[in-house]
């Protein structure tokens, strides 16, 4: 019963080597986000990024990824803002997840999109989107959140972990 | 015989590996066959469409599609409940909400998180997919400090993080949608495809709305959202006792026992409180309530009291 172990080890090692060799290109999946100077939401923005923008991973730290843009700018994005490709098919479940991420890139702008919403709204004229759009206009600057946390002794200014 | 078994393990292991690769394997297999000319490009396309339709799950709904589903679910919620048009209060709720979001598992979503107060005395809070989070005047009135309010918002953010709303969508809607979408379809659809997608969209909205507003989530999702609320509270620095203190106000309250909203759509407050308490007991350190936060909470919600 010893034989399968070296086989699995060989495959794992191979996958590890391949994943290390392939430069990781990440794609921005949120409408817009900021490339930040330090790994914090209220860190000053280096530049803004939009859905579909591609960045190269340099390193990562606690949910944040240090990246380089095609223009050469370096900064941090949160991992939830980008598709992170993983060559990790052996880990159960992750194979499917990886595929789902690949689909997300391929499906950008497709499926339930603006056109489908317009079609739905044409059929349901009684459903108003006025307050939905007003909600989206409520934007809280990260500096305001920082001030709120500072005054409320939250996060790094108080008892946050 | 023993030797033969060992030999069998190699192809079995390979098969297991391929099965794990699942969809990816179908795609690469179809690509290889198409590349060698053994199947046509359209055959390849239909193999991929079928494979995707059969394996359709909520996790394949893209961020952008989640946003569009959420917009319409939010519109349906706002057809049922009026918005409370108080910019100062909504600003406070949104700032507090963002502080929680920053410490959550999924801080960045397609168009960000947005919070809105609903003009109703009903004690309720709801979150549509895509980060549209609603909290009623009645619920805010019941909160005695910022910790309680933060815990309710953290619970709702938790539902969005774990895509609980999207999980209410019946598989058949996704199968129908994926059948139309394919992988290389145009971004704008012809009338027939658009009609099919719109029908699937309407069905999906109905599924989510029914769960959020009428029927309520499965108990396991409510417990999971409470668990996340404790986690996010502790991460941002709020006392997670805000959640148990809020649940305590619900116990034995006859006006809410048969009530609507948060009370109707959740497991019993006692059960939730027990689970939350044991979760809090497992934290390495528990942040304490701060008077400075309670003071600003009282000032911010004064208009409602």
What does this 3D model show about the protein?
The complex is a heterodimer of chains A (161) and B (305). With 161 residues, chain A is an alpha+beta fold. Chain A has a domain at 23-110: Roll (SH3 type barrels). In chain A, 37% of the residues lie in helices and 22% in strands. Chain A is built from five helices and seven strands. Chain A has a five-stranded antiparallel beta sheet. In chain A, strands 2-3 form a two-stranded antiparallel ribbon. In chain A, strand 5 (64-69) and strand 6 (74-78) form a beta hairpin. With 305 residues, chain B is mainly alpha-helical. Chain B folds into two domains: 1-55, no CATH class; 64-166 and 214-304, no CATH class. Chain B has a three-stranded mixed beta sheet with strand order 1-3-2, sandwiched between helices. In chain B, strand 2 and strand 3 form a beta hairpin. The longest helix of chain B has 34 residues, at 2-35. Chains A and B meet through helix 1, helix 2, helix 3, helix 4 and helix 5 of A and helix 1, helix 3, helix 4, strand 1 and helix 8 of B.
Task: Show the helix and strand layout.
The complex is a heterodimer of chains A (161) and B (305).
Chain A: H1 4-21, E1 25-28, E2 32-36, E3 45-50, E4 54-61, E5 64-69, E6 74-78, E7 82-83, H2 94-106, H3 114-123, H4 130-137, H5 142-151
Antiparallel strand pairs in A: 1-4, 1-7, 2-3, 4-5, 5-6
Chain B: H1 2-35, H2 41-54, H3 63-80, H4 87-102, E1 114-118, E2 125-128, E3 132-136, H5 137-142, H6 146-161, H7 171-181, H8 191-215, H9 219-236, H10 241-250, H11 254-257, H12 269-281, H13 291-300
Helix pairs in contact in B: 1-2, 2-7, 3-8, 4-6, 4-9, 6-9, 6-10, 7-8, 9-12, 10-12
């Amino acid at each position: 019963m010893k034989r399968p172990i070296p086989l699995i080890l060989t495959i794992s090692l191979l996958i590890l080597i391949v994943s290390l060799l392939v430069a990781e290109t990440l794609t921005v999946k949120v409408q817009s986000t900021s490339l930040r100077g330090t790994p914090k939401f209220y860190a000053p923005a280096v530049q803004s990024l939009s859905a579909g923008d591609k960045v190269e991973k340099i390193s990562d730290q606690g949910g944040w990824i240090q990246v380089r843009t095609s223009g050469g700018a370096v900064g941090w994005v949160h991992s939830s803002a980008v598709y992170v490709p993983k060559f990790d098919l052996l880990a159960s479940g992750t194979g499917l997840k990886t595929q789902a991420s690949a689909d997300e890139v391929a499906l950008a702008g497709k499926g339930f999109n603006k056109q489908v919403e317009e079609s739905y709204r044409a059929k349901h004229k009684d459903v108003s989107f006025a307050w939905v759009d007003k909600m989206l206009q409520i934007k809280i600057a990260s500096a305001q959140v920082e001030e709120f946390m500072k005054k409320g002794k939250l996060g790094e200014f108080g008892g946050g972990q | 015989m023993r030797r033969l078994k060992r030999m069998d393990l190699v192809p079995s292991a390979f098969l297991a590996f391929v099965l794990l690769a699942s969809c990816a394997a179908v795609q690469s297999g179809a690509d290889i066959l198409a590349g060698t000319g053994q199947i046509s490009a359209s055959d390849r396309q239909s193999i991929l469409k079928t494979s995707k339709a059969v394996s359709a799950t909520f996790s394949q709904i893209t961020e952008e599609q989640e946003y569009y589903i959420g917009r319409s679910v939010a519109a349906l919620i706002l057809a049922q409940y009026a918005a409370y048009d108080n910019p100062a209060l909504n600003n406070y709720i949104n700032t507090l909400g963002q502080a929680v979001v920053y410490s959550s598992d999924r801080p960045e979503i397609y168009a960000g998180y947005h919070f809105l107060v609903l003009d109703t005395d009903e004690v309720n809070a709801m979150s549509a997919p895509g980060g549209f989070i609603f909290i009623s005047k009645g619920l805010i009135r019941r909160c005695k400090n910022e910790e309680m309010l933060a815990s309710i918002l953290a619970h709702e953010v938790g539902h969005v993080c774990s895509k609980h709303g999207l999980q209410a969508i019946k598989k058949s809607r996704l199968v129908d949608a994926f059948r139309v979408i394919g992988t290389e379809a145009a971004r704008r659809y012809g009338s027939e495809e658009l009609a099919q997608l719109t029908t699937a969209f309407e069905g999906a909205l109905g599924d989510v709305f029914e769960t959020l507003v009428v029927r309520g989530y499965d108990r396991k999702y409510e417990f999971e959202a409470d668990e996340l609320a404790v986690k996010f509270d502790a991460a941002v620095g709020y006392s997670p006792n805000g959640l148990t203190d809020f649940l305590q106000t619900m116990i034995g309250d006859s006006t809410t026992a048969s009530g609507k909203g948060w009370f109707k759509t959740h497991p019993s407050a006692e059960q939730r409180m027990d689970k939350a308490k044991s979760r809090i007991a497992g934290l390495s350190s528990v942040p304490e309530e701060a008077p400075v936060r309670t003071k600003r909470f009282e000032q911010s919600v004064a208009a409602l009291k």
